[in-house]
Design a protein that fits this description.
Number of strands of chain B: 11
Order of helices and strands of chain B: EEEEEEEEEEE
Radius of gyration of chain B: 13 Å
Helix content of chain B: under 10%
Structural class of chain A: mainly beta
Largest interface: A-B, 25 and 23 residues
Order of helices and strands of chain A: EEEEEEEEE
Strand content of chain B: over 45%
Helix content of chain A: under 10%
Oligomer: heterodimer
Number of helices of chain A: 0
Structural class of chain B: mainly beta
Distance between the termini of chain A: 34 Å
Radius of gyration of chain A: 13 Å
Number of strands of chain A: 9
Distance between the termini of chain B: 39 Å
Strand content of chain A: over 45%
Number of helices of chain B: 0
Shape of chain B: globular
Shape of chain A: globular
């Protein structure tokens, strides 16, 4: 089963900008939208970004998404302690939804 | 607001069938696509499959031979059955709504809190 590749961890101090990458292929990211989910410790995932760079209502504009070719990235600007969580990218691959391997963001 | 709640046994014996239900409140199940996702302990997310109120489904090929997802519009819930389970099926199981924009290949915009299922004798 295909998976999207993310770095296992990322970190920053409060106020810094952190970027998480998501690498895929032509059959998933290269030809479909990318989604990002945030999973706070012990909770269900929450939709953070849809259609590559759109934020659902209520998601702060500190979170931004972008896509280029077969890769995507999530940027968190003005990092805050409450951003400490696991982040997953996702995309459709034909009729299968695939998730990234996940990145744990730590606020130092 | 729309809320989803998973329910079902927390412990299933190997080789038996895992059965879960997701009850939807605050919205008609007939208006959206609905999906199941699971997360093994300490691991990432795995998409299981989705269903439309008409009964139309799409399953993860890796689970397709053991999986049935069904919908009950009169009781506003949908269900998952996974047969011949092994320890590898131990996970937190989540149900979620597929965002209407670009459904069924859209984002999962509303999630249940998840339910832990352990496969063990």
């Amino acid at each position: 089963q295909p998976a999207l590749t993310q770095p296992p961890s990322a970190s920053g101090t409060p106020g810094q900008r952190v970027t998480i990458s998501c690498s895929g292929s032509s059959s998933n990211i290269g030809s479909n939208y990318v989604y990002w989910y945030q999973q706070l410790p012990g909770t269900a995932p929450k939709l953070l970004i849809y259609r590559n760079n759109q934020r659902p209502s209520g998601v702060p504009d500190r979170f931004s998404g972008s896509k280029s070719g077969t890769s995507a990235s999530l940027a968190i600007s003005g990092l805050r302690s409450e951003d400490e969580a696991d982040y997953y990218c996702a995309a459709w691959d034909d009729s299968l939804k695939v998730f990234g391997t996940g990145t744990k963001v730590t606020v130092l | 607001q729309v809320q989803l709640q998973e329910s079902g046994p927390g412990l299933v014996k190997p080789s038996e069938t895992l059965s879960l239900t997701c009850t939807v409140s605050g919205a008609s199940i007939s208006s959206y696509y609905w999906t199941w996702i699971r997360q093994p302990p300490g691991k990432g997310l795995e998409w299981i499959g989705y269903i439309y109120y008409t009964g139309s489904t799409n399953y993860n090929p890796s689970l397709k031979s053991r999986l049935t997802i069904s919908v009950d519009t009169s009781n506003n819930h949908f269900s998952l059955k996974l047969s011949s389970v092994t320890a590898a099926d131990t996970a937190v199981y989540y149900c979620a709504r597929v965002q209407p924009v670009a459904a069924p290949r859209g984002a999962f915009d509303i999630w249940g809190q998840g339910t832990v299922v352990t496969v063990s004798s």
